[in-house]
Amino acid sequence: RAMELPPGRFPAARAAAVAVAYLRYLRGGPGSGLQLRELRRARRQDIDDVGHKYYLELELEDVLDKDRTVNCTAEVLYHLGSKTSAPDVQVTVQGELRSTEEADKEFYNRIRSLEKELVAENIPDSHGNVPPELEPIHLLAWVASGYVIWQNSTENTKFHLAQVKHVKQVKRSDEDLQFDFVVLLHEMVSQEVLPWEVTLLWHPQRGARVPQSRAAGAGS
């Protein structure tokens, strides 16, 4: 039996952060970014010998179109005693997300036609500003860090993308765009800021995938 949790409580908020991160990885791109507007309802079920399962009802907003919200239900299962396996996440979005097809194509063609590979750092800058031409890159960093957050979250963590320290586009022989990111993830529980290296491949038709990601050592 699942127990109701006050939505304002930490365990519920931490599970919601994982669900949103997973959804960003799954459905995000250079033309859309989803963020949590409200956690409406949360329940937790303790499954013997398996782990803790959270049932969530969320309202999400599109960062590029704040008036547009979608409701979403999510299940997040944290495996007992496991530090290595990612939580199992299932997300169902009710209603339609804004179509980004045009914006995606435009961004893709713009990056493909660059003479020199794109390189940028400190997004947002120390004043919290993101230059408009780097907004799509920032949103792709959300996608990339969404994967990292989902893979590395436990019931006791809550990660948030603080900044893109560095991003470098890598030319490829196939159709994908490749971006090598160094992102700073802020872990809200311990207040640690962790640098993470993550490679993102993206294509307008195929979406995103992360072939590799690792915690960046202090030395690098």
Automatic annotation (TrEMBL):
The keyword Disulfide bond does not apply. Keywords: Protease inhibitor, Repeat. It comes from Rhodinocichla rosea. The gene is Lxn. One of its GO terms (cellular component) is extracellular space. PROSITE patterns: CYSTATIN_LXN (PS52033). It comes from the Eukaryota. Residues 1-102, 119-220 form the Cystatin LXN-type domain. This is LXN protein. Belongs to the protease inhibitor I47 (latexin) family. GO terms for molecular function: metalloendopeptidase inhibitor activity.
